[in-house]
Amino acid sequence: LKTRTCILKSVEINDCGVGMLGCRALGEALEVNKSVVHLQLDMNAFGDAGVAQLGDSLPRNQSLTALSMQYCDMTPEAGIIIAQRVMKLSTLSSLNLRGNALGEE
Asked: What is the CATH number of the domain that holds 38?
């Protein structure tokens, strides 16, 4: 995933115990890999720290169209980070954050 020659389109890592370090590694990979259009990280309890690690890389990837991070123990602070980063990601058309405590429903 961390090479330009890797041509994965969809990455689904659900309920696999992805934590802060895993989010950092995924973020680094997304900076290099421009073929991934769908990233699903549902039910991994990486919380705000993981979002911070992944979030900085999102604007540097201009291929991602769908991002799902359902039930990942995020708080409103993570929601702010995501909102700031995805505004710079013009290709994103689907964002699913269901099941996180981001604030008022």
From this structure: 3.80.10.10
pTM value is 0.90
Measured CA to CA, the distance from residue 2 to residue 96 in angstroms comes to 24
Residue 104 lies in a domain: no
Assigned domain for 4 exists: no
Cβ neighbors of 105 (< 8 A, separation 6 or more) are none
- Which amino acid, 32? V
Across all residues in the chain, what is the average pLDDT? Answer: 92
- Per-residue b or e along 62-86, where b marks 16 or more CB atoms closer than 10 Å to that residue's CB: eebebbbbbbbbbeeebbebbeebb
Residue 80, C-beta contacts closer than 8 angstroms, at least 6 positions apart: none
